[in-house]
Amino acid sequence: MKKINQFFLILFFALMSFNVQAACKLALEFGKDISMLEEKYGPGMPMQFPEINMIPILADDLCPNEKLTDVVIEHRFLNGKLAAVNFVALNDQNNSVSEKLTLMKYVKKVYGNFDTGQNIKAYRGFKVFEKGKYFVVYQKTTGEENIINEEIYVSTDLYDKMLAKFYNDKEVEQSKDMENN
Fold first, then answer.
1. Domain-embedded: residue 1
2. CB within 8 A of 105, min separation 6: which ones?
3. How many angstroms separate the CA atoms of 34 and 45, rounded?
4. CA 80/CA 52 separation, integer angstroms
5. What pLDDT was estimated at residue 129?
6. For residue 148, what are the domain limits?
7. Which residue, 61, 53, 48, is CA-closest to 34?
8. Is 124 among the domain residues?
9. How distant, in Å, are the alpha carbons of 82, 173, 178 from that of 139?
10. How many helices (H) does the chain have, and how many strands (E)?
């Protein structure tokens, strides 16, 4: 009986290890400095606010075994520290990435299954996952010219709250500026 228990314990940890390895390894840990990616991929792209920068990297370059063709991984930095990562489907007029279910298959494999209704390709909405220290949001919506906006947002609770506070403070600041003008 003891050997059977040991076997199942070893099998459990082996499967858990495989599951962790199945996920795309991010290029940088949350909270790490932007300079670590800039050395390899060049300077971060400025965003709407000077405190926010982004470095996009093709998913195939970071995750060659994940079949994430035509997906870009946007590393988003707040004050030079990695705060969030977005996996974004690079859809064309035919929504070819979303039609192949590229991101949906990935999110279900890595973060968990969820109800997408009877027609998986017709799914529109979002699903929130809390996996260990990660906060993950999968969303799929229809945008302009019927091009599907599909992405996976990954952050930690700490950095997600920091980003939310930053954007909230900017909205309040802009609102006050509009009142004064």
1. no
2. 67
3. 11
4. 8
5. 94
6. 25-180
7. 53
8. yes
9. 21, 28, 32
10. 6, 7
In a domain, 69, yes or no: yes
Count of domains for the chain: 1
| Dist CA 11 CA 8 (whole Å) | 5
**Which ranges constitute the DSSP H helices of 23-110?**
35-41, 59-62, 96-99, 102-110
Per residue of the chain (181 residues), what is the pLDDT tens digit?
544 444 333 333 333 333 333 468 777 899 999 998 999 888 999 899 999 999 999 999 999 889 999 999 999 999 999 999 999 999 999 999 999 999 999 999 999 999 999 999 999 999 999 988 888 999 999 999 999 999 999 999 999 999 999 999 999 988 888 888 7
d(C-alpha 43, C-alpha 35), whole Å: 8
Residue 19 domain flag: no
Helices of type H across the chain: 2-22, 35-41, 59-62, 96-99, 102-110, 157-180
Task: Give bridge partners of residue 156 from the DSSP assignment.
Answer: 134
Between CA 126 and CA 42 the distance in angstroms is 32
Kindly report the backbone phi and psi dihedral angles of residue 18, in degrees, each rounded to the nearest multiple of 5, phi listed first: -60, -45
